[in-house]
Specification:
Elements (H helix, E strand, L loop, with lengths): L5 H10 L25 H7 L3 H11 L4
Length: 65
């Protein structure tokens, strides 16, 4: 999930530290929606990051909107 996750906390720590100045790009979080994982397979697939959403975030990271 986007909030409360382990990697999100690491990203926040980096963004708040002096290490941020050494990054070549910005920090973005790609995660499942902040909802409980549904039991239904179709609903579960809808809340997980799709290939299109992953592509969108990759393009944002390399500044090719």
């Amino acid at each position: 999930h986007k909030t409360g996750g382990f990697i999100g906390e690491i990203a926040a720590m980096i963004a708040e530290s002096d290490a941020f100045d050494y990054l070549d790009g910005r920090i973005l979080r790609l995660a499942a929606e902040d909802v409980p994982v549904p039991y239904n397979a179709k609903l579960e697939a809808a809340m997980l990051p799709s290939v299109e959403r992953i592509k969108k975030y990759i393009l944002k990271l390399v500044n090719k909107r």
